[in-house]
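Ticket #4471: complex job returned nothing on first submit. Input attached below:
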Amino acid sequence: MNYSIAFRTIVTKEIFRFIRIWPQTLLPPAITTALYFLIFGKLIGDRIGAINGASYMDYIVPGIILMSVISHSYANVVSSFYSTKFQRNIEELLVAPVPNWIILCGYVSGGIIRGLLVGFVVALISLLFADIVVKDMFIALSIMFLTATLFSLAGFINAVLAESFDDISIIPNFILTPLSYLGGVFYSVKMLPDIWQNISLGNPILYMINAFRYGLIGVTDVDIQLAYIMTVGFILALTLISLFLLYKGIGIKN
Amino acid sequence: MNALSIRNLKKIYNNGFEALSGIDLEVEPGDFFALLGPNGAGKSTTIGIISSLVNESSGSVSIFGHDLKTERSLAKSCLGLVPQEVNFNQFDTVKSIVFNQAGYYGLPRKLALQRTEHCLKQMDLWDKRDTVSRRLSGGMKRRVMIARAMVHAPKLLILDEPTAGVDIEIRRSMWKMMQEVNQEGTTIILTTHYLEEAESLCRNIAIIDQGRIVENTDMTSLLARLHVDHFVLDLAEPLAQAPIISGYKIERIAAKVLDVAVPKEIGLNFLFSQLSAQNITVVSLKNKSNRLEQLFMNLIDAKPAGNI
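Support reply: We reran it on our side without changes. The output follows.
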């Protein structure tokens, strides 16, 4: 049995799915982030001045790019896999000799690809507003990739456990978005009082945004090694949880 | 080596409901096998376990000698499933639904395209290959599911009520397709609520009720247990009431139509002689196709078939 064909089939299907509906998947982040750059970066940013030695526009670009990667990699997997469950065409995969890890890799890869694609679209738009010279391309790309992986996995778990369409919007709206905004997209945590600084350090998104910011403009509030350890640690944990859910058939088998 | 071998299969759902109480079942290669039972009897659970959509509580299933637990991939490769309800992505085209399924089974692209074309042509759907599936009629959607299930050329095809809700013309054409697939060597397991369908198509039969196999035999032997045949007689002249003839149960269902239950030990000759004696002319007669239905009702009512 050639599992690579099954894997390619799932990934290709996923890519066609989000490209087919590009006005819903690729266009909105381009418009939204252009507005962020214009309003927060240009109009308000000019009055704020530099943060940690970087202009406010340069400072917010990495966070906005990574926020887009987070929300779209998550959204891709959660909506696609939940729809597959809802329409019961998950049965096409369950009946076939496709191992659970291929199902997981296929859907997560779809999420990663959309997350990265949106990230690059947003990065291109940012070039209209900021003149960024990338400090460390490896760190920037690897953190972007790992973040997309992590949130694709999170989206997968959400989709597996969801029992209604409401369930797939609760986590993005009430957990993911607040954590992203409070993860230092628009400000440095060093600007916060000590107690809020300490609380913010419990937010995993803070580490990813700061590591990515370091890769792009060389500015960070956290230790880069710690950021890698946390991100990879979360990826491993969520991978194991996803495989366990698939093995048990929780949420997908009767 | 049987196409399907089920040993002591049990399923108890989380709410404590025992759907299967340890069933055993054997299906031979090349068979056209009927799995019948009333709603909630355990048919869907059995099919769900065979096709890996439901986790069993205990017992074993092997498909063409491959155990579903220890040789999962090989066992699944032998199986194709046509589910009861439409379960493909309604936004995909007919061709992509079938082609993608070939990919899940690991068929290389060229072979997958060939098999997709073959199956869609066999199901008379090639002209609809680029149609978005939600625009298809109910009968076409069912044929898409059959094409999808056959794209990897499975040795065992399970059809879970494939003709439910389709009109008689489409049903007949689907019967023909199923027979062709079976004649090409594919073992078929059919569940249906149309007992006439099972009687026409299947060689062997199992009846499941309350999670237990209550009958498992060949169709001929099962029908042979029927001691009474029902005939409908068309008469030349109208009758005001049904004639009374000893040994027969006669019902007047219209002025010129009688329904007669004929015990096999008495036969038809005596009936005709008695009708002639009463100056009743029979123009034509036909056998009522409800024989299996009678047996089915008796079996699930736990009455011995010999008393039918």
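The first helix of chain B runs from residue 43 to 50. Closing as resolved unless it happens again.
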